[in-house]
Amino acid sequence: MSYPDLLSIPIALHIPASELTALPPASSSEPREPDDPTPIQELVSATLASRLYTYVCLPLTTPKWKDRWSRMCLQSPLGAGPSSGEDGQALGRDEQVEKEAEEWRLHPKFEREEVTVTRLEETYSLIGMVSAWLELDSPESGIRYDSELALRQELAYATYLDVRTVVLPPPRNRANVADYARAINAILNDSSFGSYMQLAVRIPVSEVEHRTGGSPSGLGPGKMLESPGMKSPQIVLSPEAEEGGLDSAWEMWDVIRTVCGYNSRLSIVLDLSPPFPLRPGAMDRWSAEPIRHIFLPATSFIPNAKGYPVLAKANQTFLKEVMQFLPIFILSKTQASLHNAGGSKGYAEYVRFLEKTSVPLQAMRTEGTLESFASTYMDRVQAPLQPLMDNLQSSTYAIFERDPVKYERYEEAVYQALLARGEQETVICVAGAGRGPLISRAYKAIQRVEGPKVTIYAIEKNPNALVTLQERNALEWGNAVTLFFGDMRSVELPEKVDILISELLGSFGDNELSPECLDGAQRFLKDDGISIPSFYTAHVAPLSSSKLYNEVLHQTIGDEKKNAETPYVVMFQATNVLSGEGGGVRGGCGTKVQECWSFEHPRRDLFVDARGLPFSNTHNTRSAHLTFHVPHSGVLHGLAGYFEAHLYGDVSLSIHPETKAQKSNNMLSWFPFYFPLKDPLYLPANAELDVHLWRMTSRQKVWYEWYAESFLPVPAQSPPPTFGFITPQSTGAPNTPRQGSTPVRPPRPSPMLDASPSAEGHAAFVDVLGRGELSRVKIGQTSLHNPGGRSSWIGL
After folding, report:
1. Was 476 annotated as part of a binding site?
2. Which ranges carry the PRMT5 arginine-N-methyltransferase domain (predicted)?
């Protein structure tokens, strides 16, 4: 079964202003009835009728608006004196124009010839584009102010015409991106623009331009605006900027979305204009961002051997991956005849080709895959099950029983365990039988072995599920299974068993209290008895995902603070693991995904009472301190949790991203675990992240606590081991002892990254051991989450 209509990639055609100006104006065309389509309507209808495109992307304004705005707003301000033109001649300030500009600032409005669309009917399937020449981050405060007024005017007009998605002008100036972000945040919080309009910020991923100052597009008092068309915008950095352009583009977006409070109406138009970045891993961080549009001009394509437009391998790989998010592809310059074959249709047809070869997207379309099963659960936070406290519904059991992989793995483990026992009679206990899927698989394994007698006991605490077990026992198992009702920690069996089977694992391995339950059930085992599973491990990795941060932050139920201190079960999609493969700058970091702790069953070293039950649960506490290398700058929103479990022999289960395909591919039963952060933690490139995680317990409950610190490796230099003296510094003379002065130790270097060097020129960060090795400076931390289990816990 496939889902082409639900999971088809939408494509939009960008029609530039130059093509729109060639259309006959509605006001000067032949007489027509009020209901007759306008030239714009006819153009949009013809584009959509080709069945290549789902949307049309149009600029909201014409060049006439740009001309008027630049004439009004690019004059020298009052009191600044005359400005000079390109010939060096002084340009006088036109008081009439100044008056016109002030009137516009008080009451902004358009003239008919300054807008491209005028009717509601023309905005059907329309993506509007705000004037790209507006500079909300100009170094000139006057230009910033007038650009914001113009932006609000254009968005007010788009609101009037019910345009649902608007592409905002790109940020260009790293030094003033906070001004850009403030303006957008003000609009998002202004009810006059409605609550439905989606604002998409166009972000270029190409390398950036370094300048010493001035406006990125040359705007300034006395200068007329040049038309940038739809060429890729250039981000401007100061000459001192150390970060590469790719980091700066992402950091500008990070500033914007952070200032805007991760507003769900704010998204990205990722501009893939050339040159495409080649640095490995540079594009990974964008997969964790709200990419709802991909801007793909014809200039991004290269000709293949036959002259058809294709994309380079790096572009293909990235686009095939992000297609699982179903972004709208905006194709531009398709009429420019840049390639010898394919024509204007060739670009859309190539996107369809990528769609058919996108592995993640095709997996979502293929029945029986994990991606298809989880397609409606992607990036949706769900509270983990509490099977000890709650009795599950039959529908919940039914969902988990749809997983053929897990139960096939269990059957194989039981089969191998029976083979290993040879001709011995075997007693099996299924602890936590649910509706009986493990019992059925145990019988299949028994039939495969065709060995000696096997006795099966089953324990279930859910009284409702017990009815189903009784029915299946009568109809399917010939009443051969002895059923016991109650908690496995208190039920008594008539004899010891050889094999104890359970499926109590959670997404983090132990989060559904498998250790506590099996500690109470291992008393059923003979001295040489085995448990299936025999051991399992929990793993974590640092995760970035603005989608998940929003999901946790904006839940409609529960307290915001408690929600941010509650672990969740999530099928990850729009996420990015921030950690690298290990080592890092100092060589001391662990792997990309690291093990926290493990549990083994049966545990032979337990101190138990006369019934075989542990006296306390302190032996099930755990703690982990892990260090990750973060190769590219990013924002930490939480921790991803996974587990691996060994059943028996060579049979295992895994949701670990690096081993799941080999051990239990397409297993449906468990989504990854997610530990959220209350506040995002920014991590610069080559940072080190220390993650602390605890599994705590009391007599009534089990809970997790988590905390993280960030560090930056720095050269460690030792200062001379001499004493300094407090002396006057006004003369600028070297420090020399005054008579009667008291020798003091030099002040400790500041722990902050921006600390200035000392007067002697030594580095601000020193290796106090004097070994000349790399040291670390702390740059950030989170709060301790869920102390004492105040927000979330699992009841015993």
Report:
1. no
2. 371-532
Q: How far apart are CA 409 and CA 586, in angstroms?
A: 41
> 3-state class of 178 per DSSP?
helix
The answer to whether the annotation marks 230 as part of a ligand binding site is: no
Q: Are residues 678 and 790 in the same domain?
A: yes
Look at residues 199, 214, 279, 291 and name the one whose alpha carbon lies nearest to residue 246: 279
460 is in an annotated binding site: yes
In percent, the amount of the chain with pLDDT more than 90 equals 66
Helix, coil or strand: residue 598:
strand
In a domain, residue 707? The reply is yes
- Report whether 397 belongs to an annotated binding site: yes
Beta-sheet pairing, 576-577 with 594-600:
unpaired
Take residue 520 and report the two structure tokens written for it: 């109470």
Task: Examine the fold and report which residue of 452, 484, 503 is the final residue of a domain before the chain moves on.
Answer: 503
User: Considering the chain, what is the average pLDDT of its residues?
Assistant: 85
545 and 455, same structural domain? no
487 belongs to an annotated ligand binding site:
yes
Question: What residues are paired with 129 via a beta bridge?
Answer: 59, 167
477 part of a folded domain: yes
Domain-embedded: residue 175? yes
Q: DSSP for 432-492, please give it.
A: S-TTSHHHHHHHHHHHHH--S-EEEEEEE--HHHHHHHHHHHHHTSTT-EEEEES-TTT--
On the question of pLDDT at 216 being above 90, the answer is no
Tell how far CA 506 is from the center of its chain.
23
How sure is the predictor about 49, in pLDDT bands with cuts at 50, 70 and 90? confident
CA–CA gap between residue 499 and residue 424 (Å, rounded): 12
> Active-site residue numbers?
503, 512
Question: For 290-304, what is the mean pLDDT?
Answer: 95
Mind giving me the DSSP string for 599-632? EESS-TT--B-TTS-BS-SGGG-EEEEEEEEE-S
C-alpha 653/C-alpha 240 separation (Å) is 51
**What range defines the domain where residue 465 resides?**
394-503
Instruction: Output helix, strand, coil percentages for the chain, rounded to the nearest 5.
Output: 30, 25, 45
Mean pLDDT across the stretch 3-18? 78
Nearest to 759 by CA among 708, 714, 720, 710: 720
DSSP string computed for 679-704: EEEEE-TTEEEEEEEEEEE-SSEEEE
> What is the domain count for the chain?
3
CATH number for position 427: 3.40.50.150
Domain edge (last residue) among 297, 330, 356: 297
For the stretch 159-210, pLDDT in tens is 999 999 999 999 999 999 999 999 999 999 999 998 889 999 999 987 555 4
**Could you tell me the two tokens for 778?**
């702390």
128 vs 59: CA distance, rounded Å:
6
For residue 662, the SS3 value is helix
Residue 221 CA to residue 704 CA, distance in Å, equals: 59
Residues 565 and 709 in one domain: yes
Q: Does the residue 746 lie in any domain? A: no
- Whole-angstrom Cα distance, residue 69 to residue 776? 51
Are residues 414 and 429 in contact, defined by beta-carbon separation less than 8 angstroms?
no
Q: Is 36 annotated as a binding residue?
A: no
**Contact partners, residue 38, CB within 8 Å, separation at least 6:** 26, 118, 119, 121, 122
- Across the range 29-39, mean pLDDT stands at 69
Q: How confident is the model at residue 585 (pLDDT cuts 50, 70, 90)?
A: confident
Output the DSSP codes for 336-372.
Answer: S--SSSSGGGHHHHHHHHHHHT-HHHHHHHSTTSHHH
Do 184 and 238 lie in a common domain?
Answer: yes
Cis peptide before 515 (omega within 30 of 0): no
